[in-house]
Write a structure and sequence with these properties.
It is built from 15 helices and 13 strands. The protein is α/β, with parallel strands linked by helices.
Length: about 425
């Protein structure tokens, strides 16, 4: 398989060209013939013009690549190595939504041939690849797993907005459905990953390894958020406590904040779902999720309490929220907890205006029911720094002074301006 791909006697396909799939497709396309598939034609049109719809990659990333972008699944018939990198979100009940993944399996199964490989990159619970995906591939293709076709799993580890830890510089976990597939898949990924390959003992181990990476972070951040709830009642600043505790060499550096996005705020639910299926109710993981999911509403209520304490009329007051993407310096709004913060403020009849240099107002309106303003309009009872975009980090106390009414407050969720604000009433987690 590896030899035929490198010699361009066959093709590699990537199904799903989002923030994970497109970088993978372009890296492979520097060495092999690649067919990139996405169901959204408007995204395909942009990529044909060397534009990344996720705003993560520069035009140069498309240079020197042998890739064909398509929204027609029939174009994948010539490929023999298929990489599935579709989203795995949760639904409104915080349960895994495997619709995109199983739909991709349906389509791949229809074009699967003897000797083909299918490798999954989507984050799933342990057992999903073999228990949920493989049966669909077998049914749609009429082929036998591990006899006619092989399967692998190689979890994505891309960090949106991170220009240092890029795809090729992150150690890649790979797993195969048998020893032969493990070796072939390892060779193929080795051709683009300079950081090296880690061969997991099984697909389930690789699936579990990926899901606990984000679960571990989620639980640790939840502890910091719970500490913030306690320290706020003690009238001490959490970040000052963490700074002092951090002087010990083995203290883990995690901080309180809003936990959203399509990884940390989602992946733990996949693990707890599988645990429940096996008759075990997770206590720590579920507890962490409850705390983190409630932080946006907590911040909103604290802001309202502070306005009331200052005799500022809440109903009709104006609040500016700075940043609404799920993390700094990215355009991704998926599962942004800033939206929860805004909706909670609006429930108190507050007039909320939102600025964000990276987000798309049209997407926000469609997803969350609010849009952006181009720039602040006048002064506000409160300004909430919700996302640490570089443009926000470059502001000074004078800039915030010019935005806030005399009796107003500045809320710095992540505490980045702690010690730099002296003339305005300041609060952070």
């Amino acid at each position: 398989m590896f030899k035929e791909l490198i010699e361009k006697k066959t093709k590699l396909s990537v199904i799903g060209l989002g923030y994970v799939g497109l970088p993978i497709a372009l890296e492979f396309a520097k060495k092999m013939k690649v067919v990139g598939f996405d169901i959204k034609e408007e995204r395909i049109d942009l990529m044909k013009q060397k534009i990344d719809p996720s705003n993560e990659l520069e035009t140069e990333a498309f240079d020197g690549t042998d890739i064909y972008f398509t929204s027609d699944f029939n174009d994948l018939r010539d490929a023999t190595f298929h990489v599935v990198a579709v989203p795995t979100p949760i639904n409104n009940h915080n349960l895994p939504d495997l619709t995109p993944l199983l739909s991709a399996c349906n389509c791949v199964g229809k074009i699967l041939k003897k000797g083909d490989y299918v490798v999954f990159e989507s984050t799933v619970y342990p057992g999903c690849t073999e228990d949920d995906c493989v049966p669909i591939l077998e049914k749609e293709s009429g082929l036998k797993f591990n006899i006619d076709f092989k399967v692998g799993y190689s979890p994505e580890r891309i960090n949106p907005g991170d220009k240092e830890h890029t795809l090729t510089k992150i150690l890649k976990i790979v797993a195969g459905s048998d020893p032969e597939s493990l070796e072939e898949i390892s060779k193929i990924y080795s051709s683009i990953i300079t950081a090296g390959i880690y061969k997991a003992s099984s697909i389930k181990v690789a699936e579990a390894a990926k899901i606990i990476e984000n679960t571990q972070r989620d639980v640790n951040i939840a502890l910091m958020n719970e500490l913030s709830l306690i320290f706020n009642r003690l009238n001490i600043n959490t970040f000052e406590v963490l700074e002092a505790a951090g002087t010990k060499w083995n203290f883990l550096r995690f901080f309180p904040g809003l936990v959203g996005g399509h990884c940390i705020g989602v992946d733990p639910y996949y693990l707890t779902y599988k645990a429940n299926e096996l008759g075990y109710h997770s206590k720590i993981i579920n507890g962490g999720r409850v705390i983190n999911d409630g932080m946006a509403a907590y911040v909103a209520r604290q802001v309202v309490k502070k306005l009331i304490s200052k005799n500022i009329k809440v109903n009709g007051s104006r609040i500016l929220v700075m940043g609404t993407t799920f993390k700094e310096n990215v355009s991704d709004i998926r599962n942004s907890k800033v939206a929860d913060l805004i909706h909670e403020l609006q429930s108190f009849c507050v007039n909320v205006e939102v600025v964000d240099p990276h987000a798309c107002s049209k997407e926000l309106k469609h997803e969350y029911g609010y849009g952006l303003i181009e720039k602040p309009t006048g002064k506000y009872s409160a300004v909430i720094l919700a996302v640490n975009h570089q443009t926000n980090m470059d502001l000074t106390e004078t800039d915030f002074e010019n935005l806030i009414e005399n009796n107003g407050i500045f809320v710095d969720i992540k505490g980045v301006f702690r010690g730099k604000i002296h003339k305005i009433d300041y609060w952070s987690l």
